[in-house]
Amino acid sequence: MLLVLCVDLDDDLGRKTDFDTPVVGREAVQDAAVALATADPEDSDVNVLFEGLHLHDAVDDEQREVAVVTGTDGGDVAANRKVGEEVDTVLARLTTGEDVRAVVVTDGAQDESVIPVIRSRVPIDGVQRVVVRQAQDLESMYYTFKQVLDDPETRGTILVPMGILLLVYPVLVVANALELPGATFGVVSGLLGLYLLFRGLGLERTIDSAVDRARASLFTGRVTLITYVVAAALFVIGGAGGVETVRSHGGLAALGVGEAVAAFVYGSIQWFAAAGVTASLGRVTDEYLHDSFEWRYMNAPFYVAAIALVLHGLSAFFVSEGAFALDALSYLATTLVVGTLVGVVSTLVFAIAETRFARTPETTA
Question: Are residues 97 and 8 in the same domain?
Answer without folding.
Answer: yes
